[in-house]
Known about the structure:
Elements: H1 5-8, H2 28-46, H3 56-78
Amino acid sequence: MPVSDEDKQSPHFKKGISCPHCHDRQTRERASRFAERQRQVDLARERGEQHIGQDMDELMRERRQEKLRHKQEQRRSEIPAK
Length: 82
């Protein structure tokens, strides 16, 4: 069931965790899992990535290249000028 704008105003609405229609059917364990998933979704969005469905091989290559560039910049800044 889609969550309406009115539902989002409810004290029972927690993004990614519960809504007024399901809040009373959540166990603490399940709510905790949903909260962690929402946290991961938010972190991925901040990094400009998809949380699910992204090509992980490509993402790992990009991260390795970024790490390598960062190390090279650090090494260049450590070389004393003559």
